[in-house]
Amino acid sequence: MAFKTGFLWGGATAANQFEGGYNKDGRGLSVADLKTGGDVNTPRRFTSTIEKETYYPSHQAIDFYDHHKADIDLFGQMNFNVFRMSISWSRIFPQGDELVPNEAGLQFYDTIIDELIENGMTPLITLSHFEIPMGLVEKYSGFSDRRVIDMYVRYAQTVMTRYKDKVTYWLTFNEMNFGTMGRGELTTLGMNPKDEAIYPNGQTENEKVRFQALHNALVASAKVVKLGHDINPDFKIGCMICHITSYPLTPNPVDILEQKEFDLRFTKFVGDVQVRGEYPSYMTAYLKKKDSFPVFEAEDAAILKAGTVDMYTFSYYMSVCITLDETAAETNGNLMGGKANPYLESSEWGWQIDPIGLTYTLLDLQDRYGLPMMVVENGLGFADELRPDGTIIDDYRIDYMRQHIVAMDAAVEKGVDLLGYTMWGPIDLISAGTGEMKKRYGFIYVDMNNDGTGSLKRYKKKSFDWYKQVITSNGRDL
Ligand code: P53
């Protein structure tokens, strides 16, 4: 096994899927608080106000807000030395455009960060994980208004300064590359939800505005990287990309080219800007041709150049096949699209399980950027069964993770500089894609149903002790 000493092992979460306490301590509404529950067949809806009879999973989530001490203790029992979490922006700036932060919100994170450190974990903090204060959505249409850049910077400055001696690892935006599709526009960019009502299903009628908002968010991200380095030169600040690894379905050159374009435009573009500090020519040409190239203010090119990231982090769950053949089979229920790979099996949610694809991806990224990397999400969503005796036998999850850890090891042996691994959802939490509870990733089972009912009691799954052993042996004992 090749993992370096001090390799970071842990788990990853996001405030809106995990915390709950949505109206505690003066917290303002975030865009995530207006997304309804759903399931693999029922898409989540966004409602412009809170409907009385409707279930919104983020409000309670799994109530980490009231369980944090015991939950963090459990992570400590598995010997985590890193814990990825996001700060809920609207807990700190309830409307988003205040000049002074909400002290009670900050105190909540003071407690959490101290508990993590006491339990042996270094925090890895995402500043915006699929959410933005609703105040900024309503008043400014989110990042489509340039003024929101300064509000994001003020928020980042507040928390980076407060935690400068406690937190070293920061990510500016989660899976920002969703902004290139008609998907991330609401959750990450905070564009006016009315647009989503008019243009459902990610149609691209407002593509030009969306790419302007994405540009503004890229400028905001770069400003915060620079600012973070001024606050503490030891900070390690990363991009976070949803790495949908893709293969051409056939050796037909038209499929090869189609896959290349998908990979560049969706998977690589945002990371290219954040790592290299400028727009790649393939995207500039593509956007100009479609008249969607964003307006650059005079200082933007210099800001992007000055704010390049220290590390490349990404989520890796699956791979997809790309082809021009529209009749090719899809995998069931995969909200990502992409075609089925005859050599791979899929999860119940249509995500194709591909450990070798992780070795391939790490090599590809090492070759492209040469930066230290972290796999900050990976895991298997599964409808686990809680047996009457209180056990959960999740051998399938152990298998999935074992194979992906072997795949990371193979990449490290081939020269990849890998800093750590935070698997997704060490404790069961709300699914981002479907809003349901049934799609579980954790080592810790949470007794809760899709409609939010349940005791919220925590149970250790079989994988709990397995992961502990993996960490204790630094990835040797799998
Ligand atoms: P869920 C789609 C494809 C890949 C990653 O996803 C994705 C998504 C969004 O559904 O998001 C990341 O919960 C995201 C997490 C999310 C996790 O993957 O849909 O950063 O917030 O929970 C898993 O199964």
Automatic annotation (TrEMBL):
InterPro entries referenced in this protein's UniProt entry, alphabetically: GH, GH_1_N_CS, Glyco_hydro_1
Family: Belongs to the glycosyl hydrolase 1 family.
Keyword tRNA processing on entry: no
Molecular-function GO term, any one: hydrolase activity
Keywords: Hydrolase
Protein's UniProt name: Glycoside hydrolase family 1 protein
The species this protein was found in: Pseudolactococcus carnosus
Top-level taxon in the UniProt lineage: Bacteria
UniProt cross-references to PANTHER family, sorted A to Z: 6-PHOSPHO-BETA-GLUCOSIDASE, GLYCOSYL HYDROLASE
